[in-house]
Every structure is written in C-alpha cells, then in structure tokens.
Specification:
The chain is an all-alpha fold. About 70% of the residues lie in helices and about 0% in strands. The protein is built from 17 helices and two strands.
Length: about 425
C-alpha cells in the first residue's frame, strides 16, 4: 500500500487544528480539553461517516494510520514520563497500601462483573460449565480490567489535582492496575494452555529489579549531569533518552506496557535538581504535537463497520459493567482507607477510562474469543473506550466543581509558581514559552 508523506503532513495539520479548536470550545463550556480532543478525532475521522459516502476530513491508509498510531504512542509515553517526574515519591509511599488495594479492586470487580455479563449473553450462568464459553467470558471480563492512565493523568493535570494526595493515589493505582490486569490476562491465557504463568511472574519480578538497579544508576548520573550542565538542553535530552530506553525495555524485555516503563523513568528522576526544568520541556514538547495525537487517535481509529444493532444490548451491558465495576470497586476501597466522599468518588471516576491497553488485551485474547450469543467484543471495546474517555473527565470535573485546589506546580525554573487555576491555561503558557 502506498505511503505519501504529504498526506501525513496534511493529516497532522488537521488533527492539531481540530483538537485545539474543539479543546478550546469544551473548555469554554466548562469541560476539560481532553473531551474536545477525543471528539475532534471522531469528527475528522471516518468512524461516524461509514456508509455515507463521506470518508471524513482525514482518511489515512493502513500504513499512514500506523504512523499516526506511533505519534499517539509517543504522546502517551510523554504523558506518563511527565507524570512520573511530577510524582511526589514520599506521598506515593504514604499512599502505597491504598493505591495497591484500589488497583486490586479495580481489576477484580470489573473482571467478575464482565465475566457474569458475558455468561448471561452466552446462555445464562449454566454456560460456565462449558469450558470454552467460560474462557471466552473470562477474556471479555479481562478487557474491563485496564485503565487508560493517559486520559486520567491529563484530566487531573488540567484540574490541578495531579499532585494532591488523591491525585497521586489514583495515578499510582492506575499504573498498578495495568500491571495487575496484564498479570490476570497472562494467568487466564495460561489456564487456556497458551501462556506460561510462571514466566510472566518472573518477568514482572525482573522488571521491578531492573527498575530499581538501573533507576539508581540513572539518578546518580542525572545528578552529575545537572551539576555540570544546569538548566541546559543536554540535561533534557539525557532525560528524554532515559524515558525512551525505559519504555522500550519494559515492552521488549519484560512484556510490560511501555507506558509503565516511561512512568518509572520519570519516577526515578523525580525530586532531583532540574527535574522540574525537564518536566517543563516534556510538557511543551508533548502539548505542541504528541498529546493531541494521542487523544485524537482514539476517535480516528474507531471502526464501526462490523457493528450490528442486534448486539447493542450486549454493548450497553458491557460498557455499564466496565464503568460500574471500576466505580464500585475503587470508590468502596478508597472509603475503607478513610478518603472522604469527594476523594473516593474521584478514585472511582478516575479509574473508569479505557484506552490502548484495553485494545491490547482484546488483541491478545481475540484468537480465543469466538463471537456468540449476540456478543461482539471488538465493537463493545471500542464503545467502552470512547464512552469512558469522554465520561471520565466529565465526572472528575463534576466531582471537583467548586473545590479549591491545593496543588502548586512549578511553571519554569525561574522560581515562578502558578496556582491550580492557572493550570487550566497551560496551553497559553506553553505558547508563551515557545515564543520566548
């Protein structure tokens, strides 16, 4: 299939312009810009216009779509790297038990509810006696375990809540959630005879050992570089390289999501001299190009061609199970750790978003999921991603409405601080820095 770089340039221009305009419009009506970016992807892509004769403002070929997907993956890597840089490690340790418990509940409850829903559409609970149907139901339930960290992080950042106690807990839980979800998928695959449970657990242990050992060396090297080259571009370049190496190692060597490696790289560099300087460069780089690509790609890549209205009941039940499973499990667990009502709701709502990890889980088990009983897992997963990507920032915005933020973030390395309200204007600040 032909590849035309000029088409990529045009697509990128349309994506950047549409995400910016829709982001401004949604912020104007009181919604986070993330919502506008995702809607922009739906409106400019082919998803909503299939069968109408209109292919959308952009209609990339398969190869060109791969390029856009690569841009979006770099975007979410930047988002998680920045989140790691901004994470207060001491606060993370204090919220460790709560984060792990919330993550566990956010995986187990959705899997159980999703499995139950799938069994009901396969002939009722008695279908559990059929091993093939039970495995299909477990895989479908496992799709609901993943959390889209990028969407949650970006929304919390806009609201000025990323570095608060609940923001740190939700972020930590979302990171742990994906790891637990991947382990759960590996275990289910192993039960089907298609994977090795113990090898998966060994790789997980190896990843954390790698993170600790290499992370300590990374911190010490970074400290030396900062002493010699404070506030220099080469400091940021070193940090960016470390981010990409960690992301690559996590995915290629340990079968852990690349975004987890990027977050751990940021975490290893957090709290050091010039880490805020590097974070500023990451935010500028990502907001100018890669972050809009990530959120727009969710809408652009949606494919409703295989959808049949007869399967709509399963789709709605699947989406409801995915949303309620996270809210019930995470919110109830947060309350057990004495978070107040607002914070507990934020924990539940902040974990409902799904993204690329849910699709990865589907792809892993798709060869073992045989559509039956009106079940269409792929379309249901796409609906889940789109609906939760929109609902997550809306719900979080409602939870924190009228609540004065306590987060302060460094705007630049010149000892200028901005309040949480000013974070709403981050795009404006970025534009100013680019001019400077």
């Amino acid at each position: 299939m032909d590849f035309n770089v000029m088409h990529i340039l045009l697509d990128c221009g349309i994506i950047l312009l549409s995400t910016k305009l829709l982001g401004m419009m949604t912020r104007k009506i009181g919604l986070p810009q993330v919502v506008g970016m995702i809607l922009a992807g739906l409106l400019i892509g082919p998803a909503l216009f299939q069968g109408s004769g209109f292919a959308g403002l952009i209609h990339p070929t398969e190869i060109e779509m791969d390029v856009l997907k690569s841009f979006s993956q770099i975007g979410v890597v930047f988002i998680l790297f920045s989140s790691g840089l901004e994470t207060d490690f001491r606060e993370m340790k204090r919220s460790g038990a709560a984060a792990i418990s919330i993550a566990l509940a956010g995986v187990i409850i959705p899997i159980l509810i999703g499995t139950l829903v799938a069994l009901l559409f396969m002939g009722g609970l008695s279908a559990a006696h059929d091993s093939a149907k039970l495995m299909n139901a477990l895989f479908i339930g496992c799709i609901l375990s993943a959390t889209s960290v990028g969407i949650t992080v970006e929304t919390l950042r806009e609201l000025g809540k990323l570095k608060t106690k609940i923001g740190t807990t939700v972020l930590s839980a979302a990171i742990i959630d994906d790891i637990i979800g991947i382990v759960a998928l590996s275990i289910i695959t192993g039960l089907h005879g298609e994977g090795n449970i113990w090898l998966t657990l060994l790789r997980l242990a190896g990843f954390f050992l790698f993170t600790v050992v290499v992370g300590i060396l990374l911190r010490r090297t970074f400290q030396l570089i900062v002493k010699v080259y404070p506030h220099k571009r080469r400091t940021s370049i070193f940090a960016f390289a470390a981010c990409f190496f960690f992301a690559y190692a996590a995915e290629e060597f340990f079968d852990i999501a690349a975004i987890t490696g990027a977050y751990m790289a940021g975490l290893m560099l957090s709290g050091l001299g010039d880490s805020k300087f590097v974070d500023r460069k990451v935010i500028v780089s990502s907001y100018m190009f890669f972050t809009p690509m990530f959120f727009a790609y969710i809408g652009i890549s949606a494919d409703f061609s295989a959808f049949r209205w007869s399967s709509m009941l399963f789709v709605l039940s699947f989406v409801a199970a995915g949303i309620l499973g996270k809210i019930i499990g995470c919110c109830a667990t947060a309350r057990c750790f004495k978070y107040d009502k607002r914070e507990s709701l934020a924990a539940g709502f902040g974990m409902i978003a799904r993204g690329e990890v849910a699709l990865a889980v589907y792809a892993t088990g798709s060869v073992l999921i045989a559509p039956q009983g009106g079940i269409d897992p792929l379309v249901a997963t796409i609906f889940l991603i789109i609906s939760t990507s929109i609902l997550c920032p809306i719900f979080l915005k409602l939870v924190f409405r009228g609540h004065q933020g306590t987060e302060l973030a460094a705007a630049t390395t010149y000892n200028v601080t901005i309040s949480s309200e000013a974070l709403e204007n981050v795009h404006h600040n970025i534009d100013n820095e680019c001019v400077q």
